[in-house]
């Protein structure tokens, strides 16, 4: 019986790969790329299967999308306390400027505006460095003054345009002011030197002491301390300004709740209704125990076609890894592609039992992994305009251990990313064999690694009893090591022949293709995202470099990975794939030990020695080689638009549209979803 099941699963996998997952197959006429500027390309995504949904499901998606967009302002203010004033000032200029829009200076101004929209603020979404305007302060003043008679600028009480300009000019043009949104450098006060609006008037040590007093080492179900608040000093005392109805960000959260209440009325089933009600309750109370209750209920809803992520969730923007940025992803199940990802979750216990990590760090029972592929309808906040391709939630370790997790692959987003060929492959791959293998198996390998990363990577391992949450023990290194651990689980198993038996891949060339691309990217090609002189600070980039360079060093004696220079060009060539798999297993074991035991010094050593430093000579070479390829390092997205059709106050249809102008969508959002005051 098992043999027949495996063969059937293998057939399903191969069919999905060969037809390109037909539920997301793009129409030939669909144009994915809509704009290109600076280091960004703007893409569109399709929403296949929307028309087959019921009216109730479409109405639910509409309400959830409105809730998502209603929280959009929050992300801007979280990223930097001046972002909303800057954004609204710039938007007024774009709408009303009466001068010449054909000159280079205005083009540079528009590029700056687009960069700001992509990053939800004036710091780069990946490097977190403040943008440098390519126009000067005098031109900015000209724009402001000429537009003033037509504009509704965000003036403070009693402020005039001259004072507004005096306030904003140094923020935009002084390179020494609030240089980094997130500073995770070793040896500095990461709170004082980060521009992110999560702390004010406090030091890193004060933050650590504040939460150390609250932590109970014996509590096996701890809340996510600091997740939904700003920590400030008032009258010499540290105070949390909680993000809730009646608290900080209330104006926007009230709108989010309004639309969530609408969604509750058309929920697909009781489990979904209960989860949404608990989410609303949490937004009212701001109590993180209520957020935990919501997450448990959200996990219990595994049957609904429509799903939503909405809240203060990911902590990458906090230099201490505690506070969550607002985000929302609204979606429905891609049933056909879910068949693929479900193969991985089906064998989750086997993966855990056969992991190279220490026995005491393994889960005796892997619970409740709900793995599926989803079709995105709307994204907001930390997930938009730039978006992940896979998500695994919730983040709370004890909830994952006791109740499981949801792992999703964003199938239509993956399809949009894949719409452009990888023209860098032939430049940076060493041999024709490597190139050919990537062309045949690269897409399958990439999907499989992402699936395993999200489904079994984030769900594996456990924290030792009595060890505090990783945000407190590993601090600024927690996110990097969590991503590295999830990647290593996927990398370790993608070269296991058992995956062929499970029906998850065709042959080991799938694994070899992924090893090639991962080492090539982690050790070298991802450097093209950095500017000269920058260190690696973004968590995912640090993770990939750490894994690649540690593995390269560990394999030097056996020439496992060889650094080859040919005709003045550098290549990283894998000579022994099985030995590299064994090295990945050793690193996975060590990182799980660090997480399980809360070993901060070992975390610091790994990340600072392997994940952070940049080989400047290699970096210069990578930048030069990429300059000839004309490839944008980053992608952002234009969202689809849902339009409700009403008859006598009742929604009778919900129509889906595909906007194709990034600027128009950003101005539309500014017009309809600007709920926070500019000086929140």
Tag the structure with descriptive keywords:
5-stranded mixed β-sheet; 680 residues; 15 strands; 14% strand; alpha+beta; disordered N terminus
Give me the secondary-structure topology.
Blueprint lengths: L1 H17 L14 E5 L2 E5 L10 H16 L1 H8 L3 H14 L7 H16 L17 H11 L13 H13 L25 E2 L3 H9 L16 E6 L2 E6 L7 H15 L5 H16 L2 H13 L5 E7 L13 E8 L1 H12 L1 H6 L15 E13 L8 E4 L3 H7 L1 E6 H7 L7 H4 L3 H26 L12 H4 L4 H16 L4 H5 L6 H15 L15 H16 L6 E6 L2 E6 L2 H21 L2 H13 L3 H12 L6 E5 L2 E7 L2 E8 L4 H11 L8
Parallel strand pairs: 2-13, 3-4, 8-10
Antiparallel strand pairs: 1-2, 4-5, 6-7, 7-8, 9-10, 11-12, 14-15
Helix pairs in contact: 1-12, 2-9, 4-5, 6-7, 9-10, 10-11, 17-19, 17-21, 19-22, 19-23, 21-22, 22-23, 22-24
Structural class: alpha+beta
In whole angstroms, the N-to-C terminal distance is: 62 Å
Mean pLDDT: 93
**Reading side by side through the largest sheet, how are the strands ordered?**
6-7-8-10-9
Count of individual beta strands: 15
Helix content: 40-55%
Q: Unreliable stretches, pLDDT < 50, 5 or more residues?
A: 1-26
The major sheet is characterized as: 5 strands, mixed
Describe this structure in words.
The protein has 680 residues and is an alpha+beta fold. Helix content is 48%, strand content 14%. It is built from 26 helices and 15 strands. A five-stranded mixed β-sheet has the order 6-7-8-10-9. A three-stranded mixed β-sheet has the order 1-2-13, with helices on one face. A hairpin with a 2-residue loop joins β11 and β12 (569-574). α19 packs across α22 and α22 (539-554) packs across α24 (600-612). The model is unreliable at 1-26 (pLDDT under 50).
